[in-house]
Structure formats: C-alpha cells, structure tokens
Specification:
The protein is α+β, with helices and mostly antiparallel strands and 120 residues long. The protein contains 1 helix and 4 strands. It has a domain of 73 residues: Mannose-Binding Protein A, Chain A (Roll). The protein has a 4-stranded antiparallel β-sheet, with no helix packed on it. It is elongated and about 65 Å long. 20% of the residues are buried. This is C-type lectin domain-containing protein. Keywords: Disulfide bond. InterPro entries: C-type_lectin-like, C-type_lectin-like/link_sf, CTDL_fold, Snaclec.
C-alpha cells in the first residue's frame, strides 16, 4: 500500500529515499481526504496525526490525494488529483525483517567466535 508518514523523521526518511532514487519532482504518499474532510491514511483509514502541508495547502478542490514535494528537503505536502496526475509513489512493505532468524540478539562477547549463518 502507499506509505503512511507518522512523524517528521519518517517524512525525512521517505524524502531521502525518493531523492536517492532520482525522484526530483512530486510523488504520491498514502494520505487522502475523506468525505468528512479529514486527512486519513489509505492503508487503514486512520486519521493522519502528522501532516506536513505546504503553505496554502491543501487547496479546496485541489484533489483528494497527497503528494510530497521532493525538490526541497522540507518535503512539504500538497493535495493532488490522483486520477489525473500520474506521479511516482512510495509503498510501505510490512513485515520485512532485515535480521536473519539465526542471528544472535545480543552483541558478541570478547574472545567468542563470530559465525555467519549458513557458512561452514
């Protein structure tokens, strides 16, 4: 699903990810304007408790989807017409762990051997 952003730190992380992949204009994120006018996240319909809209946004009638401006490190948001504005997007992968299940959960002690899982 499109990404949710719940803090300034996450906003900066997704901005860096976009810029490092040469997305230098706008991109879609997962916030949308609900029928009642509240901004919610598309993945679970929760109310967006963190917002980073640019000055003057969201524009009335400007669209019910949200775009992140990537040309500035402030990574401000705008409302976009997602049916007519085809933009790159960022998705969130859920349940992905970068740790191998055989890796120890604590740091090795001095003098102990360090073994890689699956390595003879």
């Amino acid at each position: 699903s499109l990404t949710t952003i719940n803090s300034a730190q996450e906003n900066k992380y997704f901005w860096r990810s976009a810029v490092s992949n040469n997305v230098l204009d706008d991109l879609h994120i997962g916030a949308y304007q609900s029928v009642g006018g509240r901004w919610k996240w598309i993945d679970d319909d929760s109310i967006a408790t963190y917002e980073n809209f640019a000055a003057g946004f969201p524009l009335p009638g400007g669209g019910q989807c949200t775009g992140m401006l990537t040309e500035s490190s402030s990574a401000k948001w705008t409302n976009e017409d997602c049916d007519n504005q085809k933009l790159p997007f960022i998705c969130r992968r859920i349940g992905v762990s970068s740790l191998h299940p055989d890796c120890p959960s604590e740091a090795p002690k001095e003098g102990n051997d360090i073994l890689a899982p699956g390595f003879p």
